[in-house]
Amino acid sequence: MIKYKGSCHCGAVTFEVEAAEAVEVEDCNCSICTKTGFLHLIVPKSDFTLLTGQEELTTYSFNTGVAKHSFCSHCGIKSFYTPRSNPDGVDVNLRCLDTAPKSVKLVPFDGRNWEENAHRVAHKSKPNTKT
Asked: 55 Cβ partners below 8 Å, 6+ apart?
């Protein structure tokens, strides 16, 4: 396991996430992910640490309100959020990491049909599923 550092664009929000050297991330086709270019690295909450910027975050929720999309209130970047599929975890945007993992497997995820597909990622926030 490696600790990766990441941030929003302006650097007001910084974090660390612990993940493997080889990771699997989802490329979701839902409306919000398509428009923001989010690549999903889902980890247990215990593998994520917000270093700076708690007071700089603003939250957006829609539909069921379970997902909590956290944005930097200065630059507007969503570096991470609490996903509806894994409310016990954190979903980090791979594109916000300062250094990418050595190996990244990009997996298409049909978020437009979320209800039928959410079970495919539900395991990712559980400890010992470090992909």
From this structure: none
